[in-house]
Amino acid sequence: MKKIYLLLGFVILFLIILSLWFFNYLTLGSKTTLPSNPNHSAFEIKTNNYAIRDDVHQYILSTYPNSIRTQKALLQYAKAFSAAVFDAQSLQLSKIHNQELLDAIVCFGYSSPELGSSPLKLLRANILNTRERIDAYSKYNSYFTSDFTEFPSENDAKKSCSEDPDLLK
């Protein structure tokens, strides 16, 4: 019975996040996204060490200049989210990226709980700034409409981070 409530809670949370993202994309997208470069492909990975587009990397660094801890958690999320969009045609890779995204969300919650979910929503809007990326994300998302992913316990949240947030400012 407990698993059913957890599953229902996760589905409701997922739908709320998806609707908030869509609302933010429609109303805030043009204000929060950096312009896409028409000379690059929709899924180009740039020269930084995080395997994310340079404009996304720069957005994170310029939006949160005073918190390396927040930057690292958002860079982990951006890497996982970008990979999920890039590999959306593969169910097998999407399952891997789904776990990476879960880890990144948990890590962000552990690293910067005071910020809530707004930074993740705004970052998603920056990553999904073209129709092609939105379509790829929809494809990735379609794989997980009925799956349930269990969140780690509060004690295990720090283990979800690719770098120990307690060692960062």
Keywords:
6 helices; 0% strand; mainly alpha; 169 residues
What does this structure look like?
- The protein is globular, with a radius of gyration of 16 Å.
- It has 169 residues and is an all-alpha fold.
- Helix 3 (68-86) runs antiparallel to helix 4 (91-111) and helix 3 (68-86) packs across helix 5.
- It has helices at residues 2-32, 54-63, 68-86, 91-111, 118-127, 131-142.
Would you identify the regions where 5 or more consecutive residues have pLDDT less than 50?
23-40
Strand content: under 5%
How many strands appear in the DSSP assignment? 0
* Oligomeric nature of the chains: single chain
Task: Report mean pLDDT, rounded to a whole number.
Answer: 78
The whole-angstrom Rg is 16 Å
Given the helix and strand composition, which structural class is it?
A: mainly alpha
Overall morphology:
globular
Distance between the termini: 41 Å
Q: Number of helical segments?
A: 6
Helix-strand sequence: HHHHHH
> Main β-sheet: number of strands, strand sense, barrel status?
none
* Percent range of helical residues: 55-70%
Offer a quick outline of the entry.
This protein is 61% helix and 0% strand. The chain is built from six helices and no strands.
Write the layout of secondary structure elements.
Elements: H1 2-32, H2 54-63, H3 68-86, H4 91-111, H5 118-127, H6 131-142
Helix pairs in contact: 1-5, 2-3, 3-4, 3-5
